[in-house]
Amino acid sequence: MKTNARCPWCGEDPLYVAYHDREWGVPVREDRRLFEMLILEGAQAGLMWITILRKREGYRAAFEGFDPEKIARFTPRRVEKLMGDPGIVRNRLKIEGTVSNARAFLALVEREGSFARWIWDFVGGKPVQNRFRTMAALPSSTPVSDALSKALRREGFTFVGSTICYAFMQAVGMVNDHLIGCARRAEVARLAG
Question: Alpha helices, DSSP H only, in the chain?
Fold first, then answer.
């Protein structure tokens, strides 16, 4: 893919380019992967996404491959140990939030049967195909991300503000925000079915 055929946000960084070209906007319907992305988007709060991408393997190691059942059993002692882990963002609220989010996730799955089905209902089960031409046109939140944020908070999740939820929706393909002119836009749209 030619550099000028990409959304400009990924720049030239090889990790960012690979993420844009292979992952961003691809519809995800697996509970565990959705949980991982929700946690990583929350970890990004106040930071650049590239910081989290560079630490993603550290997060996977620290949080047991994002197995919510294991994370839900983390003790205060385990949280304290994670505060010394340079492979993740060492923010106590975010680490404790990951543990409480795992518990909320498990409770929701127990009740609903599937996190994926529950979350995808916010967009009618099908990715929204936006048609933005410029980065300036991309919203940071929408009425749908507002509703998702409120619903997640009611379920006991933290670090799920509307802006985080919209970034999550973009990342997991609930919305296709590849710009008009980006080569991935049509490819991702085809994946939507």
Answer: 14-22, 31-43, 49-62, 68-71, 76-82, 92-112, 115-120, 143-154, 162-171, 183-191
Q: Which residue has the tokens 């993603």?
A: 56
Spell out the domains of the chain, with CATH numbers in brackets.
Answer: 23-191 (1.10.340.30)
State how far the Cα of 119 lies from the Cα of 111, in Å rounded to an integer. Answer: 13
Catalytic residue numbers, as ranges: 19, 41, 49
The tens-digit pLDDT sequence of the chain (193 residues) is 444 589 999 999 999 999 999 999 999 999 999 999 999 999 999 999 999 999 999 999 999 999 999 999 999 999 999 999 999 999 999 999 999 999 999 999 999 999 999 999 999 999 999 999 999 999 999 999 999 999 999 999 999 999 999 999 999 999 999 999 999 999 999 987 6
Answer whether 0.85 is exceeded by the pTM. Answer: yes
